Amino acid sequence: MSLRVHSKFNDLATQMRLPLGLLNAAQGHPMLVELKNGETLNGHLVMCDTWMNLTLKEVVQTSPEGDKFVKIPEVYVKGNNIKYLRVPDDIIDVVKENQANHQQGGFRGGRGGNRGDHGGRGGDRGRGRGQGRGGRGRGNRGGS
User: Fold this and answer.
1) Alpha carbon distance, N-terminus to C-terminus of the chain
2) DSSP 3-state assignment of 61?
3) What is the pTM of this model?
């Protein structure tokens, strides 16, 4: 028996890309990061990677109780310590537009799709079989 989940994003790859696409679009913008230990970081996103590790600049760190504040020039946050992220609403709108444009573009994947006449071994695109790089080759081993 197979179970099919119907949602706005049926493609699992699209679901997996959504948070990273949002973070990539948020680079250079202010954001709030809440950590699992209760601390919050407010700063501008400099960089993120595929593990959701973040680098923030111009950061204000707030204690879990909310009574202590520390200004830090730059902070690196490991993704597995992040509990919650808040990005500006306009960034979310930009990501939605990009996804809508990407979905309208149709299928672009595959082997050499939509790249002109680049396939095969014809023309001067490659050496092909039997045309060496000018070396001795296998047929001339030993002797002369």
Assistant:
1) 70
2) strand
3) 0.58
Residue pointed to by tokens 């490991």: 78
Q: Which H/E stretch holds residue 30?
A: strand 30-35
Long-range CB contacts for residues 6-15, cutoff 8 Å, separation at least 24: 14/99
d(CA 38, CA 40): 7
- Of the listed ranges 17-26, 27-36, 61-70, 84-93, the least confidently predicted one is 17-26
Token representation of residue 43: 């700063």
CA separation (Å) from 90 to 41, 95, 98, 112, 130? Answer: 20, 9, 13, 36, 58
Domains and CATH numbers, the chain: 28-101 (2.30.30.100)
Three-state SS for 75? Answer: strand
